[in-house]
């Protein structure tokens, strides 16, 4: 008889994870496992710890105690490997301010060694609805335009896991619709999506799993 195929490691495994800022515990003894192939909706009031958790998974922070694993890899001892797999869409968008949206995307496409960087950039700008202001430097962009450009960058990177911190924030209705479409496409292409949002209805249609935080602890939603 053939041996059973080894099970995939969880997409995310949190083992008794705590994070402290000064004297304040932002996350307290969180244990959770997101099965491979599932997407996660992260909910909770302002200050409940959602961004902190996303930043721990993205390796932008280290836990004060406990262990975070992403696709079976420890975020502290195997940081570089985890960084290859994850991309974070956050409030800070890490864009080149003096370049246009198109130039920002071409730079990334070249870094990623993609064929036809300008065409790839054009296609993504159309996808996120940023075709009209392609000649303006990003420093002149509104918050919603930055969000659109940031998701275009994330899509170009093709991460195994997309960590989306308030992806609908600052977007107009057309932008929200475009973002929902893009998240759906990411999922359809096999990307694990972790979505922190206050738009719970949208989140529930996009994610199969939910983790609700209250003062840094997991509680029933
Ligand atoms: N750099 C920091 N220094 C000190 N305290 C912090 C820092 N970052 C977050 N906190 C605190 O940690 C707690 C959790 O914050 P976090 O940003 O993770 O919450 P959140 O659920 O993402 O909130 P929101 O819905 O407002 O984005 C809050 O009490 C916050 O004030």
Automatic annotation (TrEMBL):
It comes from the Bacteria. Residues 12-221 form the ABC transporter domain. GO terms for molecular function: ATP binding; ATP hydrolysis activity; transmembrane transporter activity. It holds the Pfam family ABC_tran. PROSITE patterns: ABC_TRANSPORTER_1 (PS00211), ABC_TRANSPORTER_2 (PS50893). Keywords: ATP-binding, Cytochrome c-type biogenesis, Nucleotide-binding, Transport. GO terms for biological process: cytochrome complex assembly. The keyword Zinc does not apply. Gene3D superfamilies: P-loop containing nucleotide triphosphate hydrolases. SUPFAM superfamilies: P-loop containing nucleoside triphosphate hydrolases (SSF52540). CDD domains: ABC_DR_subfamily_A. SMART domains: AAA. This is ABC transporter involved in cytochrome c biogenesis, ATPase component CcmA.
